[in-house]
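User: Let's play a game. I give you a shape written as tokens, and you guess the letters that built it. Ready? Here's round one.
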């Protein structure tokens, strides 16, 4: 069993209130869960207006497939247009 995860930190454009931020973050979470069937949650910076941090995990029996899924998730977040990724930490268990 392979468990791969990552912590993605990003800046949120046009977030003038926590409500704006939560709208963007929840949209990313919902789209990512539906499209890639990964575990994803906001893990840090809950009260920071223009920053979001997501924890994402994939469980599989194939390391290469898991890495490809995580790469696709990163691409999906970057293509959002409302955020800019500024750091990615990868984890393997």
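Assistant: Ready! My guess for every position:
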């Amino acid at each position: 069993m392979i468990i791969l995860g990552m912590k993605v930190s990003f800046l949120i454009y046009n977030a003038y209130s926590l409500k704006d931020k939560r709208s963007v973050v929840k949209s990313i979470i919902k789209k990512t869960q539906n499209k890639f069937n990964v575990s994803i949650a906001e893990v840090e910076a809950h009260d920071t207006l223009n920053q979001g941090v997501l924890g994402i995990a994939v469980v599989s029996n194939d390391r290469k497939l898991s890495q490809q899924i995580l790469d696709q998730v990163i691409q999906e977040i970057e293509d959002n247009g409302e955020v800019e990724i500024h750091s990615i930490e990868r984890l393997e268990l």
